[in-house]
Amino acid sequence: MCVTLADYLDQMVEVNGWRDHHQVESPLKLYPGNQGPAIALYWISGLCRAIRDHLETAPPIFAHCTRVISKADEKLARDAYWFVVVNESTMDETEQVQRMELAAELNPWVAEPHVMLAELHFRSGAYAKAAKHAARALELFYTLATAWDKRLKFNAWVAFTRLLLLRSRRKARGMSSMPARDDLPNTSNGLALVSISELVESM
Fold first, then answer.
1. What is the DSSP string of 142-203?
2. Which residues are CB-neighbours of 55 under 8 A, at least 6 positions away?
3. Could you check whether the bond before residue 32 is cis, i.e. omega within 30 degrees of 0?
């Protein structure tokens, strides 16, 4: 059952090839769609709670299978998140933050709204807030062990967020966002070269 749940979590996109095309005689949706997150955590969390007492070790998802998200909250959270993804260029940052905060509040089990909040706070110079959201995002990524927003692979989301956390913490301490090499000339674009060894040590 846990393997089945993991399989569904890995395929949680709004337009799914096997479900919406290969198992349908006359498909009504264009594949692959926009890769938006599907609405499925409500029943996955419910199933986790139902089987919890039958497992030797409950997986850490949904507070070790003790909590359930409602379908209504899941949809509101997904829609708030996706609205920003689609309309970012026409929105001011305040509204983007508000919608992402709503998404994170209504669906506390997914990491990506926290990644977006970390980016927005980093951009506005609120580096401590950015670091807090990036750290929370990593906790959620490692717990769910898959991406909710399938536009990026899981390892790409984690890699981006780890670097964002590092940069946020450095900026919060008054340092440059990356460990630059002062002993080498800048690039042709005027950018400082980064010390890879120091970067790895910092992470």
1. HHH-S-SSTTS-HHHHHHHHHHHHHHHHHHHTTS-SS-B-TTS---TTSPPPB-HHHHHHH-
2. 2, 65
3. yes
Global pTM value: 0.89
CB 32 within 8 A of CB 15: yes
Phi, psi torsion values for 13, nearest 5 degrees: -120, 155
Domains of the chain: which residue ranges? Answer: 2-172
Q: What is the pLDDT along the chain (203 residues), one digit of tens a residue?
A: 778 888 888 888 877 766 766 777 777 777 766 788 999 999 999 999 999 999 999 999 999 999 999 999 999 999 999 999 999 999 999 999 999 999 999 999 999 999 999 999 999 999 999 999 999 999 999 999 999 999 999 999 999 999 999 999 999 999 888 887 777 788 888 777 777 777 777 77
Angle at 95 between CA 92 and CA 98, to 5 degrees: 150
Looking at the domain covering 2-172, what would its CATH class be?
A: mainly alpha
